[in-house]
Amino acid sequence: MGLLKNQVALVTGASSGIGKSVAFYLAKEGAQVAVNYYSDKEGAEDVVQKIKDIGRSAFAIQADVGSEEDVLRMFKAVYDEYDNLDILVSNAGIQKDAPFEEMTLDQWNAVIRTNLTGAFLCAKQAVKYFLKRGVVEGISKSAGKIIFMSSVHQEIPWAGHINYSASKGGLTELMRSLSQETANKLIRVNSIAPGAIKTPINEDVWKDDEKHKHLLKLIPYNRLGEPEDIAEAAVWLASDKSEYVNGTTLFVDGGMTLYPGFIDNG
Ligand code: NAI
Ligand code: BGC
C-alpha cells in the first residue's frame, strides 16, 4: 500500500483547493481520510468518491473549525468511524481583504477565528489523542503528526491583507511552540507554507490575465503552483520519511520567498 498504510488522517477545509488534493494524496498512500467541509457538501462528497474509486476509505464531516463544539463533534465522528487518528492536516483558511484603515473588526475576527483559533482547536484535540495513545508499533515511528497550512505570508508582509498575514504569523509560533512542547512525546508538528497556488481563494487573481502576469513576476520558477505540489509535500511531512523533521516550515512556493525583485540586480 504506501507510505501511510493503515493510518487515519483528518484534513480540514478539504472540499476544495489544497485540502481536497491533500486528502486524495494521503489516501493514495494508504490513509483512511476524514474529509472536513464547512458548507460545500458536494465538494466533500466528490473527494470522498474519488478516494473510494481508488479503493480507499473516506467520509465527509461538516464542521466549522472556529467552533469548539463543532470541532469536538468532528473528532468524535473520526473516532466513531475509524477508532484512531494519526495525522491532522489543519488546512482550513480564509481571506477577508481590506486596506488596513478600512478593515472592520468583523473582517479581522473572521480571519483570526478560522485561520488561527481553528488551528488551535483542532490541534488541541489531536494532541490530546496522540498523548493518550502514544506510538503504535508497525504504523508510524511518531505518536502523531500535525501539519498546519500556513503561507508564504508568515514571512512576506502583505499590505491589504493584514488580518491574513497576522493569522499566518501567529500560526507559525503556534506550530513552533507546540512542537517544542510535544516533540519529547514523539508528536511531530510542522507547517507547509505554500506560495501562489491555483485555488478558489485567489481565483480573482489567476483568472485575470493582467493580474496573472503580474503575479508571475513574483515567482522565480515562473508558474503558479497546483494543489498537487502541496499535496506531495504533505504526504512526505505526514510520513516517517520526515521522522526527524520537527517544528519546521516547508516552503513550497516556486521561489516566491527569494526576493524576486532583486533578480535584475535590485
Ligand atoms: P480554498 O478556499 O479552496 O480552501 C479553503 C477551505 O477552507 C475551503 O474548503 C473552505 O470551505 C474551508 N473553510 C473556510 N472556513 C472554514 C471553517 N470555518 N471551517 C472549516 N472549513 C473552512 O483555498 P485554498 O487555497 O485551498 O486554501 C487552503 C489553505 O491554504 C488555507 O489555509 C490558505 O490560507 C492556505 N494557502 C493558500 C494559498 C494559495 O495560494 N491558494 C497560498 C498559501 C496558503
Ligand atoms: C494567499 C493567496 C496568494 C498567495 C501568494 C496565499 O497565502 O491565500 O491568495 O496568492 O498566498 O501571495
Written account of the structure:
The chain is of the alpha/beta class and 266 residues long. The chain has 8 helices and 7 strands. It has a 7-stranded parallel beta sheet, with helices on both faces. Helix 5 links the parallel strand 5 and strand 6. Helix 1 packs parallel to helix 2 and helix 3 runs parallel beside helix 4. It is globular, with a radius of gyration of 18 Å. 45% of the residues are buried. The site of beta-D-glucopyranose has 9 residues, from loops.
Shape field:
globular
How many domains, as an integer?
1
Which ligands are bound? 1,4-dihydronicotinamide adenine dinucleotide, beta-D-glucopyranose
What is the typical, i.e. mean, pLDDT?
98
Low-confidence stretches: none
Summarize the structure.
The protein is an alpha/beta fold. 43% of the residues lie in helices and 14% in strands.
Features:
7-stranded parallel β-sheet; binds 1,4-dihydronicotinamide adenine dinucleotide; globular; 266 residues; Rossmann fold; alpha/beta; binds beta-D-glucopyranose
